[in-house]
Amino acid sequence: MKKFRPNKMTTFLFAMLEMMPAIGIGIPVMGFFMGEEYRFSAREIFGIIPVFFLLCALILVFCCLLNLVTYPFTKHTVFLFDDSFSRGETTVRYDDVTKIEFDSGAVRRFGSNDPCCLDCYAGDELRISIEHPSLLMCFYLFRNCKNAKFRYKRMKRFLSLSGFFLLLCVALGLLG
After folding, report:
1. What percent of the chain has pLDDT over 70?
2. d(Cα 48, Cα 28) in Å, to the nearest integer?
């Protein structure tokens, strides 16, 4: 049996990580479109990309370290067994799960935030919803639910945010 505590930093982590690929591609594109005197060389453009991968890793480590501060004060909420998993009074077998939806949540300036959430379905029925899932628990759950299809709920937001940052970087590059 494996016990997992909620990770309160997952929403913030995914909010930061959703922006990083767009910025990692947008900055080199901006350097390509800049005027002759300000244009980046190919070496500088390809040198920026690993820096963004390193920045993504640093954000992940930072959020994990912040989670360690709250870790002693939270209780175990999800338990993974050999053939099933449970949260509270609800127990679900791995074979029964047909669909897993991952919602990265939303961090808002005003109003309430939407927490990161992992929803497991059996057929069309929601069997269990896990708020603030542990990242390691998510990986174990994806690996054990072999019949389940995975869906990332906020893909449209991620693509529109990526497109916005890419267009912004192109515009900044053209305007110099």
Report:
1. 96
2. 7
